[in-house]
Amino acid sequence: MDKEVLLQMTDICKEFPGVKALDGVSLTVKRGTVHALMGENGAGKSTLMKCLFGIYNKDSGHIYLEGNEISFKNSKEALEHGVAMVHQELNQALKRSVMDNLWLGRYPRKGVMIDEHKMYEDTKKLFNDLGIDVDPRRIMSTMPVSQRQMLEIAKAVSYDAKVIVFDEPTSSLTEQEVEHLFEIINMLRDKGCGIIYISHKMAEILRISDEVTVMRDGTWIATEPAKELTTEKIIKLMVGRELNNQFPPKTNKAGEIALEVEHLSGQYSLLHDVSFNVRKGEIIGLAGLDGSGRTEVLENIFGIATRKSGTIRLDGRPVLNRNARESIKNGFALLTEERRATDIFGILDIRENTVISNLKNYRGKALPVMLDDKKMKKDTQWSIDAMHTKTPTQGTKIRSLSGGNQQKVILGRWLLTKPEVLLLDEPTRGIDVGAKYEIYQLIIDLANEGKVVIMVSSEMPELLGVCDRILVMSGGQLAGEVDARNTSQEEIMTLAAKYV
Ligand SMILES: Nc1ncnc2c1ncn2[C@@H]1O[C@H](COP(=O)(O)OP(=O)(O)OP(=O)(O)O)[C@@H](O)[C@H]1O
Ligand SMILES: [Mg+2]
After folding, report:
1. What is the 415 CA–ligand 1 centroid distance (Å)?
2. What pLDDT digit, counting tens, does each position of 48-57 carry?
3. Residues 225-241: pLDDT tens digits?
4. CATH of 5-239 given 3.40.50.300, 3.90.1150.10, 3.40.50.10700, 3.40.50.150
5. Locate the ABC transporter domain: which residues (predicted)?
6. FRET pair for 226, CA 20 to 30 Å: which of 36, 260, 380, 435?
């Protein structure tokens, strides 16, 4: 039997200055189903959802919830009518407690006072129902991004919504948390909710969704039952052509030893006695489970995590890398995993976001307080072109770019510091399939110029497709090393479990 229609959006149009973000898009979501929304970075997915949620005013089109036409003026109204959204960008009051964030704007009251006790008990109950183990009084800033993201999910559920939108909910979740989220989504589906799920992770989409709608350049392309789709079919619908190769040809050649890391141990992490060398022009992958110490290796090399012991040499010369500034000066760059939460300066424009880690390079020769505008423009343009960043101008505020395009700006920022050693933590997270290829190409080009690249990735095919050697971390230690051309996912998984 066909399921009943819960939400219908028809012919939605939305224009921003210089961008037609939505051009007659329609979407129908049925009760008790998960509907995936897919498309390249900047296709209009988040914008469509923001029109539903009342964050943006649509220019034209209609939205019906259970057959009644709706047009929410703001997110409060949407929530009151049973439409909730977990946003791509976290927007939380970090200095406040978990429960403050959860009930902000709808505190339970006792007379004129906030009923703290009820708020605590309600939070406890909600977390219990969802299997979340967090103290409601904990201050947000003390929690990792992944837990804060789980909290955002709990908040959406707490509104008892009929329609819940998840906009790239798993971008910072650990594998375990993803499983947990899927349990929650299945529970909501069984309750009869309509779920809209946005993600760039094919495997997730094929696993969790009932139907898939693909958008391209602000238009509707197709809606299909998930069971009739494959990764290849989805990619073709998304990019509008066959994408034969997911990875560019590997043309880089390893030269002499450039980076030597010896007996690296972390002060406040489990990282223990990690040693390895990397050659010029070599691309090294760091594999392992969540929490195995992959990110810690990068953070310790870059000096933003405290080292207990260990030495680092670049081209035979010892480098201390005691903090980020010193590391940048020594020719290192780190693209962090949590860049979406920590590295984007929302109120600044693309150009400012591009040059910000590298300002000394733009100081005028005669007058160092003056910045060389021409050079900043030229470099920013290089970054936009290299990464195919979709933006009207360099002067556009970064927060008005789509999530994936913001990420490209941050990657460009680090490439422009002209690092000798590029440390990349999940470089293609949140990036669409087509743009991934371009980023792989950039990584290989950098290796061709003799740079050292070390990348952490949870996507095994990516490590196998781009890297030369893969170091496998397990329980904070180096469990082994494999040749990327001559290994298997099984071999890597076995090593990853060595010290668990
Ligand atoms: N507030 C805004 N001001 C100006 N332009 C905007 C604004 N919000 C979105 N856009 C533009 O609308 C287009 C669609 O963006 P949207 O965020 O909907 O993409 P998306 O499909 O969610 O992409 P991603 O996968 O990267 O998150 C982009 O070109 C973006 O730059
Ligand atoms: Mg988006």
Report:
1. 24
2. 999 999 999 9
3. 999 999 889 989 998 87
4. 3.40.50.300
5. 7-242, 252-500
6. 435
